[in-house]
């Protein structure tokens, strides 16, 4: 069998299992996924699934990524609401919070769970097979969306805020890490019902904290230009 034919067969088998995993998630929730359930739905044995996916966490990740398409699709329109680079970044956070708190189990699998291997490699593998997911997304957002590390995503985007004089260069890594930790902390609190937040309350509080962190490092003479409000 030629290399090209093997790759086509591999891609086809991936689709079979991911289609089955998508059905299982929609019916039972991602927390109830098992390799056996997915293999049965796909019409193969569990051992066959392991020929294509390292373990359940690997398959969960690929399946979860399919549920982020609405976030990717809506992101440009949210960012268009901003009138400057910092505003646009904060609106991108609003879009992310809207979708992540709507489906916390999905986004937890992608950005919080132990995946047992290189998360960036999984991201690369996913988008190699699903390039159509980025169809219609502005080119300048591609590099950000295919970066797994969320703090690096933020850093990639807000570099322009340094160029435009909104934020000092040395503050970029700090604010990228802090905002990520704010989201992870609130997501953990929300999923474990530690404070009894509703989805809307969790989103609002996360955005309040993110905005406060970001605006605190904006140069004082530029802060009046930031119009974003949670």
From TrEMBL:
UniProt keyword terms in alphabetical order: DNA-binding
Gene Ontology molecular function: any one: DNA binding
SUPFAM superfamilies, A to Z: Homeodomain-like (SSF46689)
Classification via InterPro entries: Homeodomain-like_sf, HTH_TetR
DNA-binding region residue numbers: 34-53
Residue intervals of the HTH tetR-type domain: 11-71
Signal peptide range: none
Keyword Cell membrane assigned: no
Record carries keyword Repressor: no
Protein name: TetR family transcriptional regulator
Organism: Mesobacillus campisalis
